[in-house]
Amino acid sequence: MNKLKKNEDLKYYLIILSVSIIIGLPLFVNNLNIFLDDGMQHFSRLIGITTSIAEGQTFPNIMSNLCNGFGYSWNIFYSPITVYGPLVLKLIIPTYKFTLQMFMWITLFLSGLFMYKFVLKVTKSKVTAVFASVLYMIAPYRMTDIYIRFSIAEHVAFMFLPMVFLGLYNNNKYHYLIIGAVGLILTHTITTFLAIIFALIYIIANRKVSVKLVVSAIFIILITSFFWAPMLEHMLATEYGVFVPGRMATTESLYETGLEFKQWFFTDEKLHVFEIGFPIIIGLMLTPFCIKKIPNEYKNIYVIFLILGLISLVGTTKLFPWKYMPSIFSMIQFTFRMLEFMIFFLSLVCGINIGIFVKEIKTYQVLGIIIVTSCCLLLFSRHIQYLDNRAQEDLQYNYEQRIAGDTKVTNGSGWLEYLPNKAYQNRGYIASRTMNVYVISGNATIENVVKNGVNMQFEVKNIEETVLELPYVYYLGYKIEYNGEKVDYYESENGFICITISDEGHVNTSYTGTTIMKISAIISLISAIGLVGYIIIGKRGSFVI
User: In terms of Cα–Cα distance, which of 193, 161, 159 is closest to 177?
Assistant: First the structure.
């Protein structure tokens, strides 16, 4: 009996795997251009983090080759899974490009698998669950994220959404919620922000507030502290661009990105595809015929997800009052991000609708799924771009793209949003500055300068009390020693690191991280171990969070 059950499970897993392979086929074309939009930034982060590790940084946060060689940090501010996940694969894959391609395919497959597990828990129907999983993977916006925007972080966030709501739905297994929420926080901040709002609506609608939920929230906060605590520390230290109101977007500019109604159904010559997709449209059209047939056990979640899915869809347009929302909503930047949640919520709804009519998946129906999946890919494939016979790694120069005086966007450093605001406002200074140590005030002679990334040493002679500006953008975590003793540093008017010294001597710099980084890393590690302990105990029947 168990063997038959396993064989039955295998059939549905193979369907999910097959769909993910079809959708992921263009990923394995050698000259696929993954350097569009966010792609180059993720590519650059992989190279940068590898360089940071090679330099011996205790916390590999500073990408020393970026920002004209003065160092730029993604990792302090940007969620880490999309860099450390691919780096694990890079141990066995020869190129950065293929590493990212394989990472995107693996996470596509896992997103379908986790969606299957979630819907199966809700409906107890494998047929319904597999249809929901397929809809989740083949939605046009998914392929926009993978092949046009190369928004790897948002794409990976699709993997964790089903886990979050599986944990919320299943009162006895909140560790799914913890793992899913931790994954979201460490993957994509904007998706996390929206997910919190939708999760709160779901919790209130179902009156699911409990001690277990509070304990779960504490676990989530503690496990992710290694990420958010250093970011908060930097936010309090000085004004970085990402925290400047209106620097990235405003609610008015968010409103202006609203989609036109026709974009739900048709894509013209524009690259980005924001269509709902005919499979979900067909599934939605079945709603009036199906809603009365929904079993009472999950009718509540069906209705809630239908409402939230339609709200998300309207949220992609100017019909939604974005410009009247609190300013914090400006972090969303583009209304089309709401399509991620439309896909998630309506995949469950439409999967249930289709499952009412299809009670058992037969061979010809599997063939139908394959054909529909292939048609979705073919309809979309005209938007995919390819490189002209370029080698895998020949775009390294773009990683080290220099910042000119009027630069606002670079391939390796994005919108320069993680620069101190003083540095961003003085981009002309960045463009013209040399790698020398500058004497800002006082008098000193600088000799024997040796700089290798974040590691530098030099001699200071003929000195009176002097302020020196080092060739490093201001981030916390540098260790600066003067004659063997640690020296405090501060931000110059140009957004660089400054120190004040008054005697001749030798200066050494390195990057070892802040005390808060070290403490929060220990807290995260202990909390993660604690969660593993809870899960193990729960499986033995003694305790389930």
Answer: 161
